[in-house]
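INFO  loader      accepted 1 record
INFO  loader      residues=420
INFO  predictor   begin
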Amino acid sequence: MTLRKQFKFKFWLLGLALLTLAALALSCGGSKANVKTTPGASPSPTAIEVTTAPAIVRQLPRFFEATGSLAGDMQSDVQPQTSGKVVAVGVDLGSYVKRGQMIVRLEAADNKLRLDQAIAQLDNARAAVRQAEEKIGLRPGQQFDPEKVAEVAAARANYDLAEKNLQRAVKLIESGDVSRAAYDQQKSQRDALRENYQAALAQARQNYAAVAVARSNVANAQSQVDLARRALAYTIIASPIDGFVADRPVDLGEYVTTTTKVATVVRTNPLRVRIDIPEQAIPEVKQGESVSVTTSAWPDRSFSGRIARISPNVTATSRTLTVEAEIENGSGALKPGQFATVRILLPRSEPAVLVPARAVRTESGVSRVFVVKDGHAEQRLVQLGQTEGDLVEIKKGIAADEQVATGNVELLSDGVSVKQ
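INFO  predictor   done
INFO  writer      dumping tokens
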């Protein structure tokens, strides 16, 4: 074999040896990767430490809840009864006003002039009455009697005297002591005096008619004075009720008419709230029954009231009955327009299962309670009822005397080990 062939053969043997070593190395690494170690026994899970409390049974007063909006007991949009320019403003938004208190005042110069003119006309009419009464001798407050008028009384006296003289003449003419001519003269005089008396009587009645007309003029003038005085009073626009100013849209210098709203006054104590109750609860709701109200503005505070009015009709579409309650609001904490939850206490109580509120875990609208049994936590889906202090009613899912977890509830899951 030549030297060159020997060199190639050795080089080939060297390459083969290297390939064999690489194959052995890969084989050893793969076998190590596929080797499974047998683990030892896993340690037991740690039990979660919890506190527990028993579910208890207690008689709970029952109530009905509904929602509604609070409204003022009385609300008034104040409008003027005459037109004019605003010259004074007495209140602002949120001001408390008493009934009759000025809200705004209008310019009153023209109204004062009209009042002065009406008063002058009234004085003239009263003077005319006095003049007419004096003409017939009638004193103020005296009842009219035409016979007491001086002219009538004098004419009557002359007529009566002539009548008596005529009667004497009749007797004398029968005895022949008076001539027929003297008798006729006496009779003619009597007739003339009777005519004078009747004329005086008619004149007295006519003069009294003038007194009646003058008195009517006084009454008319007095009406004009009253109208002018009322028009002047209308320039002061006052609050019709006690309450708070909820709106005052006018300001100084504005011209207002009888259709302009100058303010809104609302009485906030008591407040009213209307709610609708279902048909099946109608027998249990009575007028005068106590209610309590809560709002989102005061979540930890309730306000007392009573059912004041009950609608006589059930709404045909919803089969509900409208009830209106009055809520005491002496502190002014509640405001008209607030959304409120009304609780009507029903005149009966029922047994209920209660657990501490901290035992309930609510997520996404689902409430859970964990019952502790034999060292494990058992998850129960529950239906909640009303609250009573720090307890909550469980309508479904928990029985009386079952032990429920009250501590570390957020760490629990169904079947987990627990210790107390």
